[in-house]
Amino acid sequence: MKKGAFIEINEEQFKAFVKLPKDTSVVMLNLLKFKELVPETGLSGADSYKEYMKKATPFFINAEAEILFMGKENIMLIGPEEEGLWDKILLIKYKTISDFLEMIQAVGYPSHLRNQALEDSRLIHCS
């Protein structure tokens, strides 16, 4: 993992997030950079992330999450050219913050698969 990579939730920011009104909708911006190879599985990070999405789909359905966008960056029009582009971008809408929190804390939620697939990531609460 490169220096300055972010995979796990920042506890201080999470504490602030959980204090927000639980009945408000939330859109989460996911910026993802995949590992070339995941040692635990022998798969590429991209393929490992596909496995995460398969296993996470029932949790998304249960939370009534809506994937608004899933795609890849192409060209940096504003920003430093030397900055690496993300492998995948997702925008996911949840009806409520409570739905999101219940999903990520549910027994069996496969966050470990997400974490092992990623070299770096950002998860940004948008409103």
What low-confidence regions span 5 or more consecutive residues with pLDDT below 50?
Answer: none
- What is the quaternary state of this protein? single chain
From the coordinates shown, what is the CATH architecture of the domain at 33-76 and 83-126? 2-Layer Sandwich
Helical content class: 25-40%
Looking at the structure, the CATH topology of the domain at 33-76 and 83-126 is Alpha-Beta Plaits
In one word, what is the shape?
A: globular
| Rg, Cα atoms, Å | 15 Å
Assign the CATH class of the domain at 33-76 and 83-126: Alpha Beta
End-to-end span in angstroms?
30 Å
What sequence of helices (H) and strands (E) makes up the elements?
Answer: HEHEEHHE
Please, could you describe this protein's structure?
With 127 residues, the chain is of the alpha+beta class. It has a domain of 88 residues: Alpha-Beta Plaits (2-Layer Sandwich), CATH 3.30.70. A four-stranded antiparallel sheet has the order 2-3-1-4.
